[in-house]
Specification:
Elements: H1 10-19, E1 32-33, H2 36-46, E2 53-57, H3 63-71, E3 74-79, H4 84-91, E4 98-102, H5 110-114, E5 119-124, H6 130-139, E6 144-152, H7 153-160, H8 170-178, E7 179-187, E8 192-193, E9 200-207, H9 218-230, H10 236-242, H11 250-259, H12 273-285
Parallel strand pairs: 2-3, 2-5, 3-4, 5-6
Antiparallel strand pairs: 1-8, 6-9, 7-9
Helix pairs in contact: 6-8, 9-10, 9-12, 10-11
This protein binds S-adenosylmethionine (SAM).
Length: 292
């Protein structure tokens, strides 16, 4: 399709919105892309070619979908807003490799869409559920090779942060346990209609073949991480022993830390994912269950 006629041209987006009397629904996080350079960056970061099957979350009026349809083998797009379905039928009518599913991405059986074939996820995500969507995709271990998404800049910074940084926390560790994050672009509010109140970023999460650390008890690891950052200004031993999801005493955690060669006053923000893994296994080895 001629680029001038694509929805990345703001005039086309305005025309489609007016012709269809579409009104934006804030509760669905609707901020449509109106910048072709940003879309090119998303497509480049996602590493798509004609052999790639793509799952798009929230196609809106089909702006990113048009670009995906031109470069990918096929695109399956899941959209929750019933008002957008007839619009998508029109804006994507010239592509025969696009399938629209009307539904909530949090309730879709994604594996059954692709029946075991590899695929990639690409989206300009609705910001009200960015983290739940990404965590449920990563935790359910669906076989997506990568997830390339537009999200709030502040959330992207937290996903890729390392120890010692103010952005480092439970989200950084969870994302880096399952994937390798790469920040592809920072995107200002004027690239969207309507403009969001925050800056945005494109991040690609390449799924790791296996988690980046091996632990005896994954659930325990994530509880310890959550506990450690629940009260991030306290020492790790205090924060974990105060955490209601676990029943370790401060002495238990201090003993495990000492055995691993850490200062007992260390804070969670100083530990790498490997070190959290070692702490989780050490607490297990000491024969303390700690699970409530
Ligand atoms: N992809 C379009 C673009 O870039 O212009 C629209 C992106 S807009 C930020 C997010 C889209 O996700 C909206 O179309 C919204 O209706 C849709 N959406 C919101 N919650 C959803 C959900 N739970 N499942 C599927 N789609 C959802």
């Amino acid at each position: 399709m001629d680029r001038e006629k694509m929805l990345s041209n703001p005039k086309e987006t305005i025309r489609v919105i007016q012709e269809n009397e579409f009104t934006f629904r804030k509760n669905y996080g609707q901020n449509f892309l109106i910048d072709s350079h940003v879309i090119d960056k998303i497509i480049d970061a996602a590493e798509i070619d004609k052999t790639t099957e793509v799952l798009e979350i929230g196609p809106g009026i089909g702006t990113l979908t048009q670009y995906l349809a031109e470069v990918a083998g096929s695109v399956t797009a899941v959209e929750i807003d019933d008002k957008l379905i007839p619009i998508l039928d029109k804006t994507l009518s010239e592509y025969d490799n696009v399938r629209i599913i009307h539904g909530d991405i949090m309730k879709q059986d994604i594996e059954s869409i692709f029946e075991g074939r590899p695929f990639k996820i690409v989206a300009n995500l609705p910001y009200y559920i960015t983290t739940p969507i990404i965590m449920s995709l990563l935790e359910s271990r669906i076989p997506a090779d990568s997830i390339t998404v537009m999200i709030q800049k502040e959330v992207a910074d937290r996903m890729k942060a390392g120890p010692g940084s103010k952005d480092y926390g439970a989200l950084s560790l969870a994302v880096q346990y399952y994937s390798e994050p790469y920040l592809a672009a920072n995107v200002p509010p004027n690239c969207f209609m309507p403009r969001p109140n925050v800056g945005s970023a494109v991040i690609r999460l390449r799924r790791l073949e296996k988690p980046s650390v091996e632990v005896e008890d994954e659930k325990l690891l994530f509880k310890i991480i959550r506990g450690a950052f629940n009260q991030r200004r306290k020492t790790l031993a205090n924060a974990v022993s105060n955490f209601e999801g676990l029943s370790y005493s401060r002495a238990d955690v201090e003993k495990a830390l000492t055995n691993l060669g850490f200062d007992t006053r260390v804070r969670g923000e100083a530990l790498t994912l490997e070190e959290f893994g070692a702490l989780s296994d050490e607490l297990g080895r000491l024969g303390i269950t700690g699970q409530t």
